[in-house]
Amino acid sequence: MRPLGIEGAWVDTPRVFDDRRGSFHEWFRADRFRAVTGHPLRLEQANCSRSVPGTLRGIHYASVPPGQAKYVTCVSGAVLDVVVDIRTGSPTFGQWEAVRLDDREHRAVCLSEGLGHAFMALEDGATVVYLCSEGYAPHREHGVHPLDPDLAIEWPRDLTPELSEKDAAAPPLAEAVRCGTLPSYAECVAYRRGLRTRADVGAAAMTTA
What integer pLDDT is reported at residue 207 of this predicted model? Predict the structure, then answer.
């Protein structure tokens, strides 16, 4: 797993085995996840979405703690997946990074608690599946407008963005800052440090048992 330019986000490019029958790859490995994050993935929910070209979902994030870490891949078609640093106080606050996820390279994006996430479907029937560390909790879920000109995310220009009513009504980043709904970088770092500490304690207990 290779780190992205935003701290707390990685891209995983698996080895794909092709033959006359089709292909095989490992799209999630717990050991690789733990090697980069320092703790196992707490799996509470798995989601699947299917979209027409131009569908734009996000930018979504959850309050920290506990936030919601995600491990995202595209199993059919292709999407442009975007990680946005919306953590106040972060050295890369307001920056974003895009990764193409498709059913050819089978890349996956891992993002830690507190980061914003969005993607646009590039092909018809684009199907995204993602593992979540926490279940959906409406009172903790928030959004930032994905077309905020201050963020200036470079979405494909040959597609017309199709947003849900909820995403279209999301505030721009500056307004979210004023409302105080964004997680802070310090909160996110502290929360992840706690996850690593609990993982280390658990591993030590198993060793001495």
Answer: 67
Is-contact 50 125, C-beta < 8 A? yes
Q: Which two tokens stand for residue 199?
A: 């993982």
Write out the catalytic residue numbers.
60, 130
Name the fold adopted by 2-202: Jelly Rolls (2.60.120)
Distance between CA atoms of residues 209 and 102, nearest Å: 44
pLDDT at 175 over 80: yes
Count CA atoms within 13 Å of residue 152 on its CB side.
2
* 3-state SS assignment for residue 52: coil
Q: Which residues pair with 128 in a beta bridge?
A: 49, 74
CB atoms within 10 A of CB 17: 10
The per-residue pLDDT for range 53-99, each reduced to its tens digit, is 999 999 999 999 999 999 999 999 999 999 999 999 999 999 999 99
Mean of pLDDT over the chain: 96
- CA 14 vs CA 11, 22, 162: distances in Å: 10, 16, 31
